[in-house]
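#structure-requests
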Amino acid sequence: MFKKQGVVLQVPFEASDTVATMGLLSAGLGVTIYPKSLADFFGPLFEARPIKHPDFLIQLLLVWRSSDRNKALLNFVEIAKSDYPR
């Protein structure tokens, strides 16, 4: 999805399960794309926005720590929001 938009992702960390993903998000180490069915699992410390894209067969969310003000993160979120509004 992002590659088609000309966005090159830098992925310094990856997690193989939800608990590890939450740990990375809690530390402010990025964003994740997750199934909507697990949105409530993340809780109030995180922001979540739907991603509407024809390539996705299930409804997904972009999730990040709501207090994170990292410029790269905020730019990434703005791209996702502008290309795929609520």
